[in-house]
User: Fold this.
Amino acid sequence: MSDGDEDLNRGLEGIKVAETRLSDIDGEAGVLTIGGFPVDELARSATYEESVFLLFEDRLPTADELDDFRADLAGRRAIGEEVQAVLQRAAEEGKPAMDALRMGAAAANLDAGAEDPEADARRVIAVFPTIVATYWRYREGAEPVEPREDLRHAANYLYMLQGEEPDEAAVRGLETYLNTVIDHGLNASTFTARTVVSTESDVVSAATAAVGTLKGPLHGGAPGPVLDMLRSIHESGDPEGYVREKLEAGERLMGFGHRVYRVRDPRAAVLETAAAEFYDEAGDSDFFETIEDFEDVAVEALAEHKPGRDLETNVEFYTAALLDGVGVPKELFTTCFAVSRVGGWTAHALEQLDDNRLIRPLSAYVGDHDRSWTPVDER
Ligand code: ACO
Assistant:
């Protein structure tokens, strides 16, 4: 077999390996459906708990079911002292937030004991915000804030991060984000989660491996650099110069391009609207104008740079604007993505377990055959 192997598909592009009812992407038309709803409708209307219930049960909960589901998740939020100690050490040693989340995720069922896959799924979803917020409080030299069971998922997350009850606009902004990115087809981290449970491993292992996959800049690591980029452009007032310099240096513009979308990522529109409302209320429309103007400049420059590749705005571009607006520190942007996407990862893991087949593709061997062994003293 050689690199020219006609069966070889680098990056599995265009290959379908699982059936799912969780989300559907039309990359040509720029349409994303989550649990049967257009992404903007779900993002605007749902609480995060409703989005998770929808993915798990394939329907919206009744009021009573929602109360029970919320209470169940809220009861699984606390972490033990040993996990806190690991997060403290990670913070004190300046480890990145995604590394801390990976360590915390791996310990998610330490305090919970052996449970069924759905209980494990609920536990990881519930505990992710606590892990991230605990790490962050230590990083800031503050004491961690205990989770509050009376607050809904998004509100409690901000409360634990900031140490005070957030206002409703910030909660709604964050919740819109959490709903928007909860699931997105068979992206790299979701594929990882499904691959892990396809061996009949467990949901906590699947979520832990997915955190590691999300960390990379080609997947979830882009919004931090996007914010740096936007701030530097806002300061210099020279978007054209910035873009020219980056592209001439052969660098990628963070927040643009996508493996599946050939048009503007529909999630960018949802987050743009949410961010606009937020910046408007916060009276910081100047920075937001810079962001919108820069988008036009970048898309135009990318079209000239790679004609025919359709490099359009992806979800990370307005993620940076919105999360910054609601007060999430940029060091936590990718962990915030994980706090949402863990709903999708676990729903996919449960879906995979329901109708499992071991995921085991092939590789194209490009090495030698029939070498003969030379003893070490003769090499
Ligand atoms: N800026 C400049 N050039 C780009 C960009 C970009 N953002 N994206 C792709 N290109 C170029 C590539 O350099 C490549 O050029 P080449 O053919 O000369 O090598 C060409 O366009 C095709 O790119 P691919 O690497 O084939 O695109 P792929 O589908 O593998 O990658 C990806 C998609 C990883 C998102 C890419 O567009 C990228 O790196 N974007 C910047 C990082 C980013 O925003 N990541 C977040 C993605 S969204 C998410 O995962 C939630």
